[in-house]
Design brief:
The chain is about 35% helix and about 20% strand. It is of the alpha/beta class and about 180 residues long. Helix 1 packs parallel to helix 6. Bound molecules: flavin mononucleotide (FMN).
Length: about 180
């Protein structure tokens, strides 16, 4: 059976730095992959309605289905760093993992997403570094049971002077990420 990778893209720019690295990843990745754009998806942020404290699942039915389906073997999150953190729409997407947290915390009935590999790509071109964004993204990988991203993080953090498309170290890192994901087939 073909392996599936879900790529969550946190950039609004179709031909931007993150897109360049996602493109390189997809050129080397085997199996199926789908991309979910946090900026373009129909995706409500969590409104803390608390329904998921009583009933498993989320009251919203939108593009978050692609994540809740949990039918992928690898998760790659690729995003620019904004204000040393994740861009707002990606934080909104992350907030929709609250039903997974609440299933365990309030319902005592943990969802155990299938174990999967996790890869991370960050781009940045300003003064803030990626540390805050890595902290913010960690619970997403944990709640979705994705591991390995600490060792498989690719950074292109000087895009103001070196566009990611020309950042050979980052491009090489992305190819290594693809090889690691492919090797797990
Ligand atoms: C609102 C905003 C905030 C940003 N904050 C940071 C930051 O804290 N640190 C950083 O290195 N770059 C920051 N940047 C620069 C982007 O991360 C950088 O240009 C990145 O390469 C854009 O990627 P993209 O083309 O894939 O969207 C910021 C850009 C914007 C628009």
């Amino acid at each position: 059976m073909s392996r599936k990778t879900l790529i969550i893209n946190g950039s609004p720019r179709i031909h931007g730095d993150t897109a360049a690295l996602i493109g390189e990843l997809c050129r080397h990745l085997h199996g199926e992959f789908t991309e979910l754009s946090a900026f373009r998806a129909e995706l409500a942020p969590c409104i803390d309605c608390r329904a998921c404290r009583n009933v498993r699942g989320c009251v919203f039915d939108d593009d978050m289905r692609a994540v809740y389906a949990d039918d992928f073997d690898a998760l790659v999150i690729a995003s620019p760093v904004y204000f040393s953190n994740l861009p707002g729409p990606l934080l909104s997407l992350a907030s929709r993992l609250q039903p997974l947290h609440n299933a365990e915390y309030y319902l005592g009935n943990p969802t155990t997403p299938r174990p999967k590999l996790g890869g991370l790509i960050f781009t940045g071109g300003g003064k803030g570094n990626e540390a805050g964004a890595i902290r913010a993204v960690r619970p997403v990988f944990r709640l979705l049971n994705a591991s390995g991203f600490d060792e498989h993080t690719v950074l292109s953090m000087h895009t103001d002077t070196l566009p990611a498309a020309e950042d050979h170290a980052a491009l090489d890192g992305v190819r290594k990420l693809a090889a690691w994901l492919n090797g797990a087939q």
